[in-house]
């Protein structure tokens, strides 16, 4: 049987969890997304290196907090893959574009994805 103290603790923890998850809605962050067409001649090792380099970007570039990358659920025009990057602000995006780790990443993704992409940015409210 759970004591009143245990029940209150469980309710408090549940409330904190709800509060924390609700706090992420409507964040004033910046999202940069690109949809790409894959290179026909890309090898599995190239894809592995691309995903590894993409996953490592948040630890290398200040202001870049999260990255999602993968195959689109359904193609957009001829684009089959996408990458979205959550950043602290539009200024962080500007800094990201000039960061050496971004330039290194571009060299890696150019082995698996064609250079032409459909891009869009979302400025959080």
Short descriptors:
125 residues, globular, 4-stranded antiparallel beta sheet, Alpha-Beta Plaits, alpha+beta
Could you characterize what this model shows?
This protein has 4 helices and 4 strands. The protein has a single domain, classed as Alpha-Beta Plaits (2-Layer Sandwich), CATH 3.30.70.100. It is an alpha+beta fold and 125 residues long. It is 45% helix and 34% strand. Strand 2 and strand 3 (79-87) form a beta hairpin. Helix 2 (44-60) packs antiparallel against helix 4 (100-109).
Mean pLDDT score: 83
Distance between the termini: 46 Å
- Count of DSSP strands: 4
Overall radius of gyration: 19 Å
Given helix and strand content, the structural type is: alpha+beta
CATH topology: Alpha-Beta Plaits
- Largest sheet geometry: 4 strands, antiparallel
Strand order of the largest sheet: 2-3-1-4
Number of domains: 1
Which runs of at least 5 residues are low in confidence (pLDDT < 50)?
A: 1-23
Morphology call: globular
CATH 2nd-level architecture:
2-Layer Sandwich
> What proportion of the residues form beta strands (DSSP E)?
25-35%
Given the structure, what is the number of helices?
Answer: 4
Order of helices and strands: HEHEEHHE
Can you tell me the CATH class?
Alpha Beta
Summarize the structure.
By secondary structure, the chain is an alpha+beta fold. It is built from 4 helices and 4 strands, in the order αβαββααβ.
What's the topology here?
Elements lengths: L3 H20 L6 E9 L5 H17 L3 E13 L2 E9 L2 H9 L1 H10 L3 E11 L2
Antiparallel strand pairs: 1-3, 1-4, 2-3
Helix pairs in contact: 2-4
């Amino acid at each position: 049987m759970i004591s009143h103290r245990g029940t209150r603790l469980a309710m408090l923890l549940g409330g904190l969890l709800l509060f924390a998850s609700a706090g992420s809605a409507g964040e004033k962050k910046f999202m940069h997304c690109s949809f790409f067409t894959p290179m026909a001649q890309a090898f599995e090792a190239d894809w592995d290196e691309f995903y590894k380099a993409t996953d490592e970007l948040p630890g290398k570039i200040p202001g870049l907090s999260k990255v999602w990358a993968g195959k689109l659920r359904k193609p957009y025009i001829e684009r089959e893959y996408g990458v979205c990057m959550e950043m602290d602000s539009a200024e962080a995006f500007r800094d990201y574009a000039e960061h050496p780790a971004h330039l290194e990443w571009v060299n890696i993704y150019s082995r698996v994805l064609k250079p032409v992409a459909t891009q869009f940015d979302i400025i959080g409210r």
